[in-house]
Specification:
Layout lengths: L5 H23 L32 E2 L4 H7 L6 E5 L3 H7 L1 E2 L4 E2 L3 E3 L6 E2 L4 E2 L1 E3 L3 H11 L7 E5 L4 H12 L4 E5 L17 H4 L4 E2 L12
Parallel strand pairs: 1-10, 2-4, 2-9, 9-10
Antiparallel strand pairs: 3-11, 5-8, 6-7
Protein backbone atom coordinates (compact mmCIF):
# COMPACT_ATOMS: atom_id res chain seq x y z
CA UNK A 1 0.00 0.00 0.00
CA UNK A 2 1.35 3.38 -0.95
CA UNK A 3 1.22 6.46 1.27
CA UNK A 4 1.18 9.15 -1.43
CA UNK A 5 -0.08 9.46 -5.00
CA UNK A 6 2.74 8.73 -7.48
CA UNK A 7 3.24 12.38 -8.50
CA UNK A 8 3.59 13.52 -4.89
CA UNK A 9 5.96 10.65 -4.16
CA UNK A 10 8.14 11.52 -7.13
CA UNK A 11 8.32 15.12 -5.95
CA UNK A 12 9.36 13.98 -2.47
CA UNK A 13 12.01 11.57 -3.81
CA UNK A 14 13.48 14.31 -6.00
CA UNK A 15 13.58 16.60 -2.97
CA UNK A 16 15.32 13.88 -0.99
CA UNK A 17 17.99 13.49 -3.64
CA UNK A 18 18.58 17.25 -3.71
CA UNK A 19 18.90 17.31 0.06
CA UNK A 20 21.31 14.39 -0.07
CA UNK A 21 23.54 16.39 -2.40
CA UNK A 22 23.37 19.34 0.02
CA UNK A 23 24.36 17.10 2.91
CA UNK A 24 27.28 15.59 0.95
CA UNK A 25 28.49 19.05 -0.05
CA UNK A 26 28.40 20.21 3.57
CA UNK A 27 30.26 17.10 4.73
CA UNK A 28 32.90 17.61 2.06
CA UNK A 29 33.40 21.15 3.30
CA UNK A 30 34.07 19.92 6.82
CA UNK A 31 30.45 19.96 8.00
CA UNK A 32 29.26 17.71 10.78
CA UNK A 33 25.95 15.84 11.12
CA UNK A 34 23.07 17.16 9.05
CA UNK A 35 24.53 20.53 8.03
CA UNK A 36 23.09 21.91 4.81
CA UNK A 37 19.48 20.97 5.54
CA UNK A 38 16.76 23.59 5.94
CA UNK A 39 16.59 25.07 9.43
CA UNK A 40 12.80 24.81 9.63
CA UNK A 41 10.59 21.89 8.71
CA UNK A 42 7.14 20.66 9.69
CA UNK A 43 5.94 17.10 9.39
CA UNK A 44 3.59 16.86 6.41
CA UNK A 45 2.03 13.45 7.09
CA UNK A 46 -1.75 13.48 7.44
CA UNK A 47 -2.50 11.07 10.33
CA UNK A 48 -5.80 10.12 8.71
CA UNK A 49 -3.93 8.83 5.64
CA UNK A 50 -1.68 6.49 7.64
CA UNK A 51 -2.64 2.79 7.22
CA UNK A 52 -3.88 1.13 10.41
CA UNK A 53 -0.80 -1.11 10.98
CA UNK A 54 1.40 2.01 10.96
CA UNK A 55 -0.69 4.14 13.30
CA UNK A 56 0.50 5.02 16.79
CA UNK A 57 -1.24 6.22 19.93
CA UNK A 58 0.54 9.58 19.79
CA UNK A 59 0.00 10.14 16.06
CA UNK A 60 3.51 11.51 15.40
CA UNK A 61 4.58 10.53 11.91
CA UNK A 62 7.40 11.36 9.51
CA UNK A 63 8.19 10.28 6.00
CA UNK A 64 11.78 9.22 5.45
CA UNK A 65 12.42 12.20 3.18
CA UNK A 66 11.51 14.54 6.08
CA UNK A 67 13.78 13.02 8.73
CA UNK A 68 17.07 14.93 8.23
CA UNK A 69 15.40 18.35 8.09
CA UNK A 70 13.16 17.42 11.02
CA UNK A 71 16.20 16.52 13.15
CA UNK A 72 17.91 19.77 12.23
CA UNK A 73 14.80 21.76 13.12
CA UNK A 74 14.57 20.06 16.52
CA UNK A 75 18.05 21.19 17.53
CA UNK A 76 20.26 18.95 15.44
CA UNK A 77 21.66 15.47 15.95
CA UNK A 78 22.81 16.24 19.51
CA UNK A 79 19.20 16.81 20.61
CA UNK A 80 17.49 13.87 18.87
CA UNK A 81 18.00 10.12 19.15
CA UNK A 82 17.57 8.50 15.72
CA UNK A 83 17.30 4.71 16.01
CA UNK A 84 17.19 1.94 13.43
CA UNK A 85 15.04 -0.75 15.05
CA UNK A 86 15.37 -3.47 12.40
CA UNK A 87 17.12 -6.78 12.98
CA UNK A 88 20.88 -7.21 12.95
CA UNK A 89 20.61 -9.24 9.75
CA UNK A 90 18.72 -6.44 8.00
CA UNK A 91 21.38 -3.90 8.94
CA UNK A 92 24.15 -6.25 7.81
CA UNK A 93 22.66 -7.27 4.46
CA UNK A 94 20.49 -4.26 3.53
CA UNK A 95 22.51 -1.38 5.02
CA UNK A 96 21.71 1.40 7.50
CA UNK A 97 20.84 5.11 7.32
CA UNK A 98 24.09 7.05 7.62
CA UNK A 99 22.64 9.40 10.24
CA UNK A 100 21.25 6.76 12.61
CA UNK A 101 22.67 6.86 16.14
CA UNK A 102 22.37 3.14 16.75
CA UNK A 103 20.75 -0.16 15.84
CA UNK A 104 18.31 -1.24 18.59
CA UNK A 105 16.20 -4.16 17.30
CA UNK A 106 12.58 -4.19 18.40
CA UNK A 107 12.26 -7.86 17.44
CA UNK A 108 14.86 -10.42 16.38
CA UNK A 109 15.04 -13.83 14.73
CA UNK A 110 15.53 -16.84 16.95
CA UNK A 111 19.17 -17.86 17.29
CA UNK A 112 18.63 -21.07 15.30
CA UNK A 113 15.81 -19.63 13.17
CA UNK A 114 13.68 -22.77 13.47
CA UNK A 115 10.29 -21.09 13.92
CA UNK A 116 8.16 -20.04 10.92
CA UNK A 117 5.58 -17.25 10.71
CA UNK A 118 2.97 -18.59 8.27
CA UNK A 119 1.07 -15.30 8.13
CA UNK A 120 4.14 -13.29 7.08
CA UNK A 121 5.90 -16.12 5.21
CA UNK A 122 9.19 -15.61 6.99
CA UNK A 123 11.21 -16.90 9.93
CA UNK A 124 9.55 -16.05 13.22
CA UNK A 125 10.57 -12.86 14.99
CA UNK A 126 10.63 -12.66 18.77
CA UNK A 127 10.23 -9.49 20.91
CA UNK A 128 13.49 -8.16 22.34
CA UNK A 129 13.13 -8.08 26.13
CA UNK A 130 15.87 -5.48 26.51
CA UNK A 131 14.50 -3.10 23.87
CA UNK A 132 13.47 -0.38 26.33
CA UNK A 133 16.64 -0.64 28.48
CA UNK A 134 18.78 -0.41 25.35
CA UNK A 135 16.90 2.68 24.14
CA UNK A 136 17.47 4.25 27.55
CA UNK A 137 21.16 3.40 27.40
CA UNK A 138 21.50 5.05 24.00
CA UNK A 139 19.64 8.11 25.28
CA UNK A 140 21.98 8.42 28.24
CA UNK A 141 24.99 8.16 25.95
CA UNK A 142 23.82 11.40 24.32
CA UNK A 143 22.87 13.08 27.58
CA UNK A 144 19.16 12.80 26.75
CA UNK A 145 16.15 11.40 28.59
CA UNK A 146 12.59 10.17 28.03
CA UNK A 147 11.32 13.71 27.42
CA UNK A 148 13.59 14.24 24.42
CA UNK A 149 12.82 13.54 20.77
CA UNK A 150 13.23 10.01 19.39
CA UNK A 151 12.86 9.02 15.73
CA UNK A 152 12.36 5.32 14.95
CA UNK A 153 12.86 3.71 11.56
CA UNK A 154 12.23 0.09 10.57
CA UNK A 155 11.77 -1.50 7.14
CA UNK A 156 8.42 0.02 6.16
CA UNK A 157 6.73 1.54 9.21
CA UNK A 158 4.89 -1.34 10.91
CA UNK A 159 7.47 -2.25 13.56
CA UNK A 160 8.31 1.37 14.28
CA UNK A 161 4.62 1.97 15.08
CA UNK A 162 4.56 -0.90 17.59
CA UNK A 163 7.88 0.19 19.06
CA UNK A 164 6.62 3.77 19.38
CA UNK A 165 3.61 2.56 21.36
CA UNK A 166 5.84 0.37 23.54
CA UNK A 167 8.00 3.37 24.44
CA UNK A 168 4.97 5.58 25.02
CA UNK A 169 3.65 3.02 27.51
CA UNK A 170 6.99 3.28 29.31
CA UNK A 171 6.82 7.06 29.66
CA UNK A 172 8.67 8.34 26.58
CA UNK A 173 6.87 11.53 25.65
CA UNK A 174 7.92 12.40 22.07
CA UNK A 175 8.57 9.44 19.80
CA UNK A 176 8.15 9.76 16.02
CA UNK A 177 7.62 6.86 13.64
CA UNK A 178 8.96 6.90 10.06
CA UNK A 179 5.94 5.52 8.21
CA UNK A 180 7.74 4.40 5.03
CA UNK A 181 10.87 3.11 6.76
CA UNK A 182 14.26 2.31 5.29
CA UNK A 183 13.16 0.20 2.31
CA UNK A 184 9.62 1.46 1.80
CA UNK A 185 6.29 -0.13 0.95
CA UNK A 186 5.85 -3.01 -1.47
CA UNK A 187 4.96 -2.17 -5.07
CA UNK A 188 2.50 -4.15 -7.17
CA UNK A 189 5.39 -6.10 -8.71
CA UNK A 190 6.59 -7.22 -5.27
CA UNK A 191 9.53 -4.84 -4.92
CA UNK A 192 10.18 -2.23 -2.24
CA UNK A 193 10.55 0.55 -4.77
CA UNK A 194 7.69 2.84 -3.74
CA UNK A 195 9.05 5.11 -1.00
CA UNK A 196 11.32 4.95 2.06
CA UNK A 197 14.82 6.16 2.96
CA UNK A 198 16.68 4.40 0.13
CA UNK A 199 14.19 5.35 -2.56
CA UNK A 200 14.28 8.99 -1.42
CA UNK A 201 18.00 9.10 -2.25
CA UNK A 202 19.07 9.72 1.35
CA UNK A 203 22.56 8.65 2.53
CA UNK A 204 23.03 5.06 3.69
CA UNK A 205 25.79 2.47 3.73
CA UNK A 206 26.54 -1.25 4.01
CA UNK A 207 29.58 -0.32 6.09
CA UNK A 208 28.60 -0.70 9.74
CA UNK A 209 30.04 1.05 12.79
CA UNK A 210 30.54 -1.44 15.62
CA UNK A 211 29.83 1.28 18.20
CA UNK A 212 26.32 1.65 16.76
CA UNK A 213 25.50 -2.06 16.65
CA UNK A 214 23.37 -4.03 19.10
CA UNK A 215 24.97 -6.67 21.32
CA UNK A 216 22.99 -8.56 23.98
CA UNK A 217 23.96 -7.52 27.52
Amino acid sequence: MTINPPDTLNDRNAMGRRRCLQWMAAAGAGGIGWLGWPAKVSAAVDPAAVPEPKRTKAGRYLQASEVPAFIEARGGADKVLFLDIRTRAEAMYVGMPSGADALVPYVEHQDLMTGWDAQRNTYRLEPMQDFVPEVLRRLQQKGLDKADVLVLICRSGDRSARATNRLADDGFSEVWSVIDGFEGDMSQDGRRSVNGWKNAGLPWSYKLDRQKMYFPR
